[in-house]
């Protein structure tokens, strides 16, 4: 894509998006990091004994998108569920410490808080323990969430649907949220997973990564020609306005529905040195929503999001994108 945007224009977009409310609906998770050291083997079984030095909690899943919205200067309203348990309380406390609004987080007594515990010893990740159930939430809780969305929709500049297949975004929930948003003319940005992949019809932006698209369409994407063929097929199936495929170190591919037909733009990564692509998809979807809420057109938004993804891919681990750093990137 041969498209330029000045740092002054980027600054203007972020000035306008400042404090805009953006809803993030999806599966929230608690990431627990247990740090320690190993000096012996258990006499009970041939396993390592980890002496714990410290424990750290981070917000994962859809909360990572909300955190990116926050660090870009807008105000995320995270909508999801936690269990009625200790981890759920920790989750809410962590949100409050990060100045994230907790009004859209509801407790489900029938399930545990989705959590992932990582044990780190001597800087090595030696074990991960997952606690989760994936069945869909009950009808009463679904109605509560839909009522919250409908009641507050007029205050949202846009809505992000962040799906991890953990039970909140059922077919019915997806269809109703999209119907609400289209009726209120609110842009919808979707980051899908395998289940219900084709239910997100008639949204503004649909953003799968390469693997998600391969899994959903049952075909291996081994080159640009096949990616373009499958992308056009997918765009027709779900009738989105724009399809954006994130491709890790290869950057992104955007499908734009124009009068003459679907136009495809290859967008190479802006990363100088790709260290870790983890979380880049979260960065892209959040930056797109924030930029559009600040008056950017889709081409401006995708260029800004590409720069944002490039910056986070130069870091190790999942890190948020900060507005100041992003604006500075356009001055170089």
Based on CA atoms alone, the radius of gyration comes out at 20 Å
Shape: globular
* Structural class assignment: alpha/beta
- Highest-level CATH class: Alpha Beta
Summarize the structure.
The chain is an alpha/beta fold.
Structural description of this entry:
This protein has 332 residues and is of the alpha/beta class. It has a single domain, classed as 3-Layer(aba) Sandwich (UDP-N-acetylmuramoyl-L-alanine:D-glutamate ligase). It has 10 helices and 13 strands. It has a 9-stranded mixed β-sheet with strand order 5-4-1-8-9-10-11-12-13, with helices on both faces. Strand 6 and strand 7 form a beta hairpin. Helix 1 runs antiparallel to helix 10 and helix 8 runs antiparallel to helix 9. The model has no long low-confidence stretch (mean pLDDT 90).
Give the SSE map.
Elements (H helix, E strand, L loop, with lengths): L6 H11 L3 E6 L1 E14 L6 E14 H10 L3 E9 L2 H12 L7 E4 L6 E7 L2 E8 L7 H14 L3 E7 L8 H13 L4 E4 L13 E2 L3 H8 L6 H15 L3 E5 L5 E7 L2 E7 L12 H14 L4 H16 L9 H7 L3
Parallel strand pairs: 1-4, 1-8, 2-6, 4-5, 8-9, 9-10, 10-11
Antiparallel strand pairs: 2-3, 6-7, 11-12, 12-13
Helix pairs in contact: 1-8, 1-10, 2-8, 4-5, 8-9
């Amino acid at each position: 894509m041969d498209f330029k945007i000045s740092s002054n224009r980027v600054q203007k977009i972020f000035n306008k998006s400042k404090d805009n409310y953006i809803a993030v609906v999806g599966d929230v998770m608690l990431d627990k990091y247990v740090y320690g050291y190993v000096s012996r083997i258990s006499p009970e079984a041939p396993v390592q004994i980890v002496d714990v030095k410290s424990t750290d909690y981070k917000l994962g899943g859809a909360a990572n998108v909300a955190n990116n919205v926050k660090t870009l200067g807008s105000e995320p309203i995270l909508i999801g569920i936690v269990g009625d348990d200790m981890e759920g309380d920790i989750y809410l406390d962590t949100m409050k410490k990060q100045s994230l609004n907790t009004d859209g987080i509801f407790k489900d007594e029938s399930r545990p808080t989705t959590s992932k515990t990582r044990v780190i010893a001597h800087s090595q990740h030696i074990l991960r323990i997952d606690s989760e159930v994936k069945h869909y939430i009950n009808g009463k809780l679904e109605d509560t969430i839909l009522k919250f969305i409908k009641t507050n929709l007029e205050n949202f500049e846009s809505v992000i649907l962040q799906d991890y297949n953990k039970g909140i975004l059922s077919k019915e929930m997806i269809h109703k949220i999209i119907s609400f948003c289209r009726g209120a003319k609110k842009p919808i940005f979707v980051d899908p997973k395998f289940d219900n992949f084709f239910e997100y019809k008639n949204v503004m932006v649909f953003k799968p990564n390469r693997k998600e698209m391969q899994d959903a369409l049952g075909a291996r994407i081994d080159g640009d020609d096949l990616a373009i063929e499958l992308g056009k097929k997918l765009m027709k199936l779900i009738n989105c306005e724009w399809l954006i495929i994130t491709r890790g170190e290869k950057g992104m591919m955007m499908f734009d529905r124009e009068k003459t037909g679907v136009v495809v733009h290859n967008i190479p990564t802006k990363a100088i040195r790709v260290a870790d692509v983890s979380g880049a998809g979260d960065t892209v979807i959040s930056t797109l929503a924030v930029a559009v809420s600040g008056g950017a057109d889709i081409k401006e938004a995708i260029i800004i999001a590409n720069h944002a993804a490039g910056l986070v891919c130069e870091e190790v681990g999942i890190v948020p994108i900060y507005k100041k750093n992003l604006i500075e990137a356009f001055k170089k």
